[in-house]
């Protein structure tokens, strides 16, 4: 199938999958069921496995992720020569797998932890566990040859996160000029929103200085400034006084901050902001999926939309396992207003 034919087919197929997915207004259906068995039937439309409830919650998460990965791999496989960004997006799970592998080795475990299988697009060889150098050999992660100490594990994971975003950003630049803009804008905002939330959490919950926070942001350069597409505005908001409603109200993210009722002592709420920006990213993905059919933007936004769906399925499953009320679960998921 040539690229134009594949793009048309992928758009139609991806649209059909989204129509059946628990996204947009359909998300709330996940939080209306009364048991894990009902949740399984709702999500998979198959017979419920005969396993204990505590195991069923985990199985729902695992199966939902497997289905998502398979659907995405099948869509990418429609192209004879997929744009690099499609496979690099999927390698998010290899970076996550490597974090789990290293964490397992740091704690001295002999068994390979559960791995997300990305099929023919995998570049890591988990059969070589516990030899980390052999696992990463001939991959873009081949620099990982030694196990970090417990103290250095978080810095190691941050290095992986930075590499993933930079590799992904380079892949965006390889897209045809006509397709590059929407993808760059969407993914840039997605990563920027995460950076803003993370920056405020470090500052307010862990008392990091602005300079310390800077070292833990995902950026496209080693010494980012306000012009960095994925970290620039996160650096700027660090300069806003956390208790100044006026400063935050004049910012470009004023629509996503916690409300001020006039007489109270107000402070920016990182959790509120995180949930609001997450919802904004999801809404943007749903909107832009339709705006640029037959382009790379379709699979990029579809991938992110389905990741959000996975998060909500996990929240619903865990909530049912722990007997959390539907209203509280909707708050946790950030969809209480749907």
Keywords for this entry:
mainly alpha, 338 residues, single chain, 14 helices
Rounded to an integer in angstroms, the radius of gyration calculated over CA atoms is 21 Å
Sketch the major β-sheet.
Answer: none
Question: Could you say which structural class the secondary elements and strand pairing correspond to?
Answer: mainly alpha
* Unreliable spans: none
**CA(first)-CA(last) distance:** 40 Å
| Shape by Cα distribution | globular
Percent of residues in helices: 55-70%
The number of distinct β-strands equals: 0
Order of helices and strands: HHHHHHHHHHHHHH
DSSP summary: helix tally: 14
% residues in beta strands: under 5%
What does this structure look like?
- Helix content is 59%, strand content 0%.
- Helix 12 packs across helix 13.
- The model has no long low-confidence stretch (mean pLDDT 94).
- With 338 residues, the chain is mainly alpha-helical.
- The protein is globular, with a radius of gyration of 21 Å.
Question: Brief description of this entry?
Answer:
With 338 residues, the chain is mainly alpha-helical. The radius of gyration is 21 Å and the shape is globular.
Topology:
Layout: H1 3-20, H2 36-44, H3 53-76, H4 84-90, H5 92-106, H6 132-136, H7 153-173, H8 177-205, H9 210-214, H10 232-237, H11 245-249, H12 270-291, H13 296-322, H14 326-333
């Amino acid at each position: 199938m040539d690229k134009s034919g594949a793009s048309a087919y992928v758009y139609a197929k991806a649209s059909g999958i989204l129509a059946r997915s628990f996204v947009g207004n359909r998300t709330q259906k996940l939080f209306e069921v009364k048991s894990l068995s009902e949740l399984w039937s709702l999500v998979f439309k198959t017979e419920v496995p005969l396993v204990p409830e505590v195991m069923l919650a985990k199985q729902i998460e695992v199966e939902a992720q497997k289905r998502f990965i398979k659907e995405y791999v099948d869509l990418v496989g429609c192209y004879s020569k997929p744009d690099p960004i499609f496979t690099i997006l999927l390698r998010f799970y290899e970076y996550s797998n490597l974090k789990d592998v290293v964490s397992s080795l740091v704690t001295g475990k002999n068994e390979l932890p559960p791995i997300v299988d990305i099929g023919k697009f995998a570049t890591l060889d988990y059969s070589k566990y516990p030899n980390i150098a052999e696992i990463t050999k001939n991959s873009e992660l081949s620099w990982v040859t030694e196990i970090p100490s417990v103290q250095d594990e978080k810095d190691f994971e941050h290095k992986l996160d930075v590499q993933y975003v930079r590799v992904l950003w380079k892949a965006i630049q390889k897209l045809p000029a006509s397709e590059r803009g929407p993808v760059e804008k969407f993914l840039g905002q997605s990563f920027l929103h995460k950076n803003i939330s993370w920056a405020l959490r470090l500052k307010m919950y862990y008392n990091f200085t602005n300079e310390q926070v800077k070292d833990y942001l995902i950026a496209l350069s080693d010494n980012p400034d306000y012009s960095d597409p994925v970290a620039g505005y996160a650096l700027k908001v660090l300069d806003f006084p956390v208790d100044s409603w006026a400063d935050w109200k004049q910012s470009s993210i004023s629509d996503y901050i916690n409300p001020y009722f006039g007489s109270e002592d107000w402070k920016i709420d990182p959790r509120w902001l995180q949930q609001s920006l997450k919802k904004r990213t999801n809404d943007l993905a749903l909107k832009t999926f339709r705006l640029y059919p037959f382009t790379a933007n379709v699979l990029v936004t579809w991938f992110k939309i389905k990741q959000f769906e996975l998060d909500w399925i996990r929240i619903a499953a865990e909530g049912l396992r722990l007997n959390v009320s539907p209203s509280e679960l909707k708050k946790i998921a950030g969809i209480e207003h749907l």
